[in-house]
Design a protein that fits this description.
With 238 residues, the chain is of the alpha/beta class. It folds into two domains: 122 residues, 3-Layer(aba) Sandwich (Rossmann fold); 95 residues, Winged helix-like DNA-binding domain superfamily/Winged helix DNA-binding domain (Arc Repressor Mutant, subunit A, Orthogonal Bundle), CATH 1.10.10.10. 39% of the residues lie in helices and 20% in strands. The chain contains eight helices and twelve strands. Strands 2-1-3-4-5 form a five-stranded parallel sheet, sandwiched between helices. It has a four-stranded antiparallel sheet with strand order 6-7-8-9, with helices on one face. Strands 10-12-11 form a three-stranded antiparallel sheet. Helix 1 links the parallel strand 1 and strand 2. Helix 1 crosses helix 5 and helix 6 crosses helix 8.
């Protein structure tokens, strides 16, 4: 069955162009023209990915994104923003968007970005062969189950976006190793983000808020000045 996409934009020309090209790419496309319609349709959880414009009538893209995450709808979101809306890009990522693309863009670029996000999502959720116990990564009080798509801190479940979960798995798998921002972009986002490492910093910040006892003095995800980040066990590692 074709993967299902929800495309949200109030500009009919953009909506028609994206729908045509994504359908040509083999996707099953549903459209929405305002934030309220987007929240209503996306809230069903039936879509594999949402392409969401930032500027929408009735309810903007940030509100839609926030509303979906509050409803525990973790469908990956590709946010479309104007070229200079840097603050809104960062805020969108903090509210749970997985990626963003600035206007103007080519339909081919959107299709490639959509496929990259879906590919990573599928790899993360891929079912593993049956085993007596699910694979578990433990770092201090943090337990991560990549096969079950679950993570806990002190046995309390974490509410993570798909990209936050992928980032946590990657850092936990490489515990103790320094990962540069470019390495994280290539490994977690699976494509060149044109040198914009801000997306990594935003997701690291958001992840810290969910697993660290205090974000001012992180004990799990350490910043290695001038290099990148590494994840450590506060009870075992120096």
């Amino acid at each position: 069955m074709p993967q299902k996409l929800l495309i949200v934009d109030d500009e009919e020309s953009i909506l028609t162009l994206l729908q045509f090209n994504l359908e040509q790419g083999g996707f099953d496309v549903t459209t929405a023209i305002d934030g309220e319609e987007a929240l209503d349709k996306a809230g069903t959880g039936e879509f594999d990915l949402i392409v969401l414009d930032l500027m929408l009538p009735k309810m903007d893209g940030l509100e839609v994104c926030k509303g979906l995450r509050q409803q525990k709808v973790m469908t990956p979101i590709l946010m479309l923003t104007a070229k200079d809306d840097e603050f809104d890009k960062v805020l969108g990522l903090e509210l749970g968007a997985d990626d963003y693309l600035t206007k103007p863009f080519s339909p081919r670029e959107v299709t490639a970005r959509v496929k990259a996000i879906l590919r990573r999502s599928a790899q993360t959720r891929q079912e593993a062969p049956a085993a007596p116990e699910p694979q578990k990564l433990t770092i201090g009080d943090v337990d991560v189950y990549p096969e079950n798509y679950e993570a806990f801190v002190k046995k309390e479940p974490l509410e993570l976006t798909p990209k936050e979960f992928e980032l946590l798995v990657y850092l936990a798998t490489n515990k103790g190793r320094v990962m540069t921002r470019d390495q994280l972009l290539n490994s977690v986002w699976n494509y060149d983000f044109i040198g914009d490492t801000r997306i990594v910093d935003v997701h690291i910040s958001h992840l810290r808020e969910k697993i660290e006892p205090t974000t001012k003095k992180p004990v799990y995800i350490k910043t290695v000045r001038g290099l990148g980040y590494k994840m450590e066990d506060p009870y075992k590692d120096e």
